[in-house]
Amino acid sequence: MIHILFGLSGAGSLKMALKAMRVHKIEQIIAFGDIFSIGPVRMLHEKAGQDVRFQWMKNVMNDEDGDFQDYQQWFYNTVNQIHSIPVNVPITIWVADNSHEQTGLRYVLYLLRDKTNKIKVINTTKAHAVHFNRPDIQYTVLKTGEISPEKLQVIYEKGQSKSLSVHERKELEEEWLALADTKETLRIWRNEKIKGVKEDYYDQYMINMAKKLQIEREREQEPEKFMKSARLIGEVIGYLDQYMGDAFFEYRLRKLIEKGVFEMEGNLKAMRYYSVRLAKG
């Protein structure tokens, strides 16, 4: 069995679950370290599309540790691992209800389009609701990476998902081709579908959050007028029903600083080095 996941935290938790079940030596994990809800995915199944995505990531993401080369190599290695899966090995793809993992699912199924492997999909958002939600506690899983190894083990052991039919695979492959024909660099998950939106889609939400935080600080009579950018971005992510990752919001914050919406002090080299406040006027 080969398990494919989108995110390193989810892969780490599943690894621990497989170890607890004593099957970690015979079941392999392949994990993307990318976030498919952001950045271009146009023709990502081809080298030219990958180059465009890498260039976008390089241009917009802070690379303070100089690990961009590692990111690029990880991507190539993961794609090569998927292409190298032997035809007789069953595959399980783990996804939650977010645009990142759902885009990744369609991408991987397209990469596997010529393989006849049995492929199962475990929807962790829905499986978590079935196995762990109670009448008094309704919790919606946003991404696979937030589920504990113990719960992933239960989901795996009790999962009754059937292999995808030829028709289901074809449908998802075609959905990938539709995605691969789009130019948006931001995708959200709405009504069980991936929807492309403009890059500034959440800018006003971030501005509103900054206003809220500044009012709270004034109420508490905090002397510091600037707030740490990490504090603002943490609040933005904390109340969001989507998964984009903090690097994207930090990029948008820098754009809003450029436009004069926010003032800053410190160094834009990395999120932890600067603080912001809304510009007056």
UniProtKB/TrEMBL annotation:
Residues annotated as domain DUF1835: 2-124
Ranges where the DUF3658 domain occurs: 161-274
Name of the protein: DUF1835 domain-containing protein
Organism for this UniProt entry: Neobacillus paridis
